[in-house]
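BUG-235 | component: ligand-complex export | severity: low

The export step for coenzyme A jobs runs without errors, but we want the raw record kept on the ticket for reference. Input record follows.
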Amino acid sequence: MIESVSPGGGTSTPVRCLESAGPGSHTGPVRRAYTVCVRHIEPATREQASQLARLINLAGEGIPEYLWEGMREGAETALDVGARRASRDDGGFSYRNARVCVEDGNILGMVLAYAQPDPLDIGDIEEYPGFLRPLVELEAMAPGSWYVNALATFEAWRGRGVASALLEDTHARAAGAGCASVSLIVASTNEPAMRLYERFGYRAEGERPVVPFGGCLHGGRWVLMCRPVTPSIDT
Ligand SMILES: CC(C)(COP(=O)(O)OP(=O)(O)OC[C@H]1O[C@@H](n2cnc3c(N)ncnc32)[C@H](O)[C@@H]1OP(=O)(O)O)[C@@H](O)C(=O)NCCC(=O)NCCS
């Protein structure tokens, strides 16, 4: 939800999924017709920056748009600012940190993740705006983890395994990068996301009350959730 710097890159992973072809496709009491689609999870590109900005904003509980609003230049909208930042080669929101789930050329969802430094020095917490301090403090509790900064699926594609596939890809990348855990921060009020993470074995390791900001979508708490992974390379 907040920006920091790390490298991106990586390879494409095919994801097989079964989708019912609909009620008219049934040919008998036991046989059902299915179409088999092949989804890919692949590194995002600079050209996808506008869609990445939309997805980062969906994941950020109102924070990205609030921050981008204050960075507008000329006739830019907040989402234009997000796209400009996502198209950069560096910065936490860079397209280089993003992996997209693609089907038939359409982006269905995205995960933006990278390794946190270890040790993780946050400097003087008083220098951050009040509403970001809880998030910075929670991030700092998971040094050296593979940090999921943003995960989102476009509305039309939810409930079809897109985020689950992106999380599986994330766990493999974390292991490949030599990380022993994956961390993320979720709002306690975000029930679909909490359910998803718990199903994947994430456990709460810390929490802070949400500090309201302009455009704040909810109260509640920010929850740091972590899940162990087995590093697949020597560190
Ligand atoms: C949270 C979020 C990322 C989940 O994305 P998603 O692609 O819908 O997630 P999945 O499809 O993998 O899983 C969602 C549910 O669909 C179910 N599901 C997965 N594949 C399915 C399929 N083929 N058919 C039916 N249901 C399926 C899952 O079991 C899961 O069920 P649950 O709600 O009981 O846990 C999505 O709601 C989102 O983008 N929200 C806004 C952004 C956000 O909050 N991001 C997280 C910030 S920390």
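Assignee comment: Attached the raw record above. The chain has a mean pLDDT of 88.
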